[in-house]
Amino acid sequence: VGGLVGAIETDGSYSLSELKNTGNVTGLNQIGGIIGRIGNETNVKNGVYVITSNDVSNSGEISGNAYVGGIVAQMESTSINSFMLCTNNATLQGTLVGGIAGKANISMERCSNMGAITAFRSEMGAPYAGGLVGKYANASLSLSIDSCFNRGNVTAYTWTQNSTAYAGGFIAMLEESVSLNVLDAFNAGIVSIAGTTSSTVV
Known about the structure:
Elements: E1 5-8, E2 12-21, E3 25-26, E4 31-32, E5 35-38, E6 49-58, E7 62-63, E8 68-69, E9 72-75, E10 81-88, E11 92-94, E12 96-98, E13 101-104, E14 106-109, E15 112-113, E16 117-120, E17 128-130, E18 133-136, E19 142-146, E20 149-150, E21 154-157, E22 163-168, E23 171-174, E24 179-183, E25 186-187, E26 191-194, E27 197-201
Parallel strand pairs: 1-5, 2-6, 3-7, 4-8, 5-9, 6-10, 7-11, 8-12, 9-13, 10-14, 10-15, 11-16, 12-17, 13-18, 14-19, 15-20, 16-21, 17-22, 18-23, 19-24, 20-25, 21-26, 22-27
């Protein structure tokens, strides 16, 4: 489910420019302020998508279960995708949540999150709350975060003893072997774990 586009599943190059969502968006999985999912749900590892976003914003509250993002909820792509001047201004809530993207492989420039990010443990697994991205998950790409910031508070909740939660001002989880370069970026939000946890706060 997306505020403007539900899913992009066809290989190709796409340009998203001067787009804005102001309405609240709710659903179960893959809930994005602009786009719900980029990638083929049945064969997500083989999709080739080149997405360029410029001057895109979300101001509607976004809530769901797994994969929630202010701009895009879930991106499964074998290409480097570029987001510029993307902004989320609203509160986001789900299991795997990011101010710009829930799960993605994107390079970002001058992107920002101003909304509170809240992740809850569910049947989908541990909570991931990232000020910009919930999870980076493509080891074959070299990505960058340049001149971006997070000002929203970031909280991951879990309720069972010895369970795990992840929270980060920029990224909740960076999978092994992902190459990421961060330049001129800052976090001003409070990052925290709530509940009885084995937790990671970064």
